[in-house]
Design a protein that fits this description.
heterodimer; A: alpha/beta; Rossmann fold; 6-stranded mixed β-sheet; 4-stranded antiparallel β-sheet; about 25% strand; B: about 260 residues; mainly alpha; 8 helices
């Protein structure tokens, strides 16, 4: 794993994400239970936990794709738990997200997928100020982003022509191209080899250094995520079992947390 | 305990029915908003018209052509047994097809071909989180995905219904001439077609054209899991779409019967 610079948490002045007592049921099954979470502006939070523990659901709650049954969800100071579409539109303008299943639009080419957020951003700016990115500027930024994720020259391919790892990288390029203030990564390195994993985390860290964005990443690759993130939260059965510095998780008091991090056979899991 | 389980099952079925009705109503409202705001990608309506219209044209024409010939032969046979006077066959046949069979059978065929296609397109998008990605990009998925299909489906169902009438009537005339020796001048008679037949047929075609993409889109958006969920959504789209066509037919035929003194 390549070295990773620390995030600019020193300049944090407010919470980028503040969840308080969030409850969510899906098909009558409790998925998030009295979940509270605080992520500082400019911070990097890694979320780990056993499968079906609610990690991906939590990310969707953070951008209003799922509405909690109760509790408060504040994103960069804006309450979104009431599901008001106008508020959500405003909040989502500042969010980029890599989905677990890549979520690449299969009717668009790779280049069009990566350019999609920029076109949307351009449409919004056109409506307000009128000063927008030109087509050639968008093309340049798309090319640069594809080069950064190691997919230079793939712009004209269709998503169906790509491997899972390549789709993941296109997803990262699309999530980051509009330089959002909050980036959510759902399994950013799943399906990637160790070298590419290291490169992806380096790229994400470099982007963060430039933009000062806040990052929340969910990953099953505990070691890589602990190296990348400042803080780690372990989510188990919809509850936060641990939240603290990533370098001290191995010494956590909770036996379940220690077992999950060490990968031991014996234990409460 | 069995009684309680039964009550719970009935209650959950009723709640599910309400949830489906609410979901479809929301989809109708969202699509209508999309039409008014023109909040859909440029060129998408034309692309959908091609998919729904052009690609269904041959299928509809062949099916309706054969249907027209079979119906003329069957009804001609019956008339021959009763009165032997085949002169009103063409006029009644045309009226029946304009107000009933052409729109309804065309729509039933579109419900299978187009409805399945829409659900099979939108279902994988739902399962692979593409619809979530659209929402995250500030796009209303209903406007983006359903509205262009709705506009295209309404237009093309109407156009295909017109073609269906022409093809069926022509094929019926051919069958009447070759099987019964009926003079085409006698068969091609539009004297029995009234304005309300045209209005009723048009209303049905427009209603069917609206219902098919809405129901198929709803089924696609309800897809869960993997390919099994998409398959189930596609099947549901065909069944629910066909069922909706027959319900709409019953509704409009009932209105026709009450207000115009009987359609059939």
């Amino acid at each position: 794993m390549a070295s990773m610079s620390s995030s600019p948490t020193e300049s944090a002045i407010q919470s980028a994400i503040l969840l308080s007592k969030v409850e969510l049921h899906l098909d009558r099954v409790p998925v998030l239970q009295s979940l509270s979470l605080d992520v500082a502006e400019g911070g990097r939070l890694g979320i780990i936990g056993p499968a079906a523990g609610g990690k991906s659901v939590l990310l969707k709650v953070l951008v209003g794709l799922l509405k909690p049954d109760s509790g408060s969800v504040k994103v960069r100071g804006t309450e979104i738990s009431d599901g008001d579409e106008n508020t959500l539109m405003d909040v989502r303008e500042e969010v980029g997200m890599l989905f677990q299943n890549y979520a690449l639009f299969d009717f668009l080419t790779v280049g069009q997928n990566v350019a999609f957020p920029l076109h949307r951003q351009r449409d919004r700016i056109r409506k307000s100020s009128g000063d927008t990115l030109s087509d050639s500027e968008i093309d340049e930024r798309v090319e640069a982003r594809l080069l950064a994720v190691g997919l230079a020259g793939s712009g004209n391919k269709m998503p169906s022509e790509l491997s899972g790892g390549m789709k993941k990288r296109v997803g990262i390029a699309r999530a980051t191209i509009a330089r959002p203030k909050l980036l959510l990564y759902d399994e950013p390195t799943a399906g990637l080899d160790p070298v590419t994993t290291s490169k992806m985390y380096d790229l994400i860290a470099k982007d963060q250094k430039e933009t000062g964005c806040t990052i929340v990443a969910v990953s099953s690759d505990v070691n890589a995520l602990c190296t990348f993130a400042d803080d780690i939260a372990l989510l188990h059965l919809g509850q936060i079992r641990y939240q603290g510095k990533s370098d001290s998780i191995a010494d956590a008091d909770d036996e379940l947390v220690r077992q999950f991090v060490s990968g031991a056979d014996q234990g409460p899991l | 305990m069995i009684g309680q389980a039964r009550i719970e099952s009935i209650g959950s079925g009723i709640l599910g029915g309400f949830a489906t009705a609410r979901g479809i109503l929301k989809l109708i409202a969202g699509s209508a908003r999309g039409v008014l705001r023109r909040d859909y990608p440029k060129g998408e309506v034309v692309r959908q018209m091609y998919t729904i219209g052009n690609k269904s044209f041959v299928f509809i024409c062949i099916t309706m052509g054969f249907l027209g010939m079979v119906m003329v032969m069957q009804s001609g046979e019956q008339i021959n047994r009763i009165t032997g006077d085949l002169s009103p066959l063409g006029a009644q046949f045309l009226r029946l097809f304009i107000q009933e069979f052409a729109p309804t059978i065309t729509a039933l065929m579109l419900a299978t071909r187009v409805g399945a296609g829409i659900a099979a397109e939108i279902g994988p998008m739902q399962v692979s989180e593409q619809i979530d990605a659209l929402r995250l990009s500030g796009i209303t998925p209903v406007s983006y995905l359903i509205t262009p299909r709705l506009i295209a489906s309404v237009c093309m169902t109407y156009v295909l219904t017109v073609f269906a009438v022409v093809v069926t009537f022509s094929a019926g005339g051919l069958a009447a001439w070759s099987v019964f020796g009926l003079n085409p001048h006698v068969f091609f008679d539009s004297s029995q077609v009234h304005t309300y037949d045209l209005v009723l047929g048009s209303c049905k075609a427009i209603a069917y054209g609206s219902a098919i993409p809405i129901i198929a889109g709803y089924c696609g958006m309800q897809a869960r899991g993997g390919s099994e969920g998409v398959g189930s959504a596609t099947t549901n789209a065909v069944i629910a779409g066909s069922f909706a066509v027959l319900q709409i037919d019953f509704f409009f035929s009932g209105i026709g019967f009450v207000f115009f003194g009987g359609g059939l």
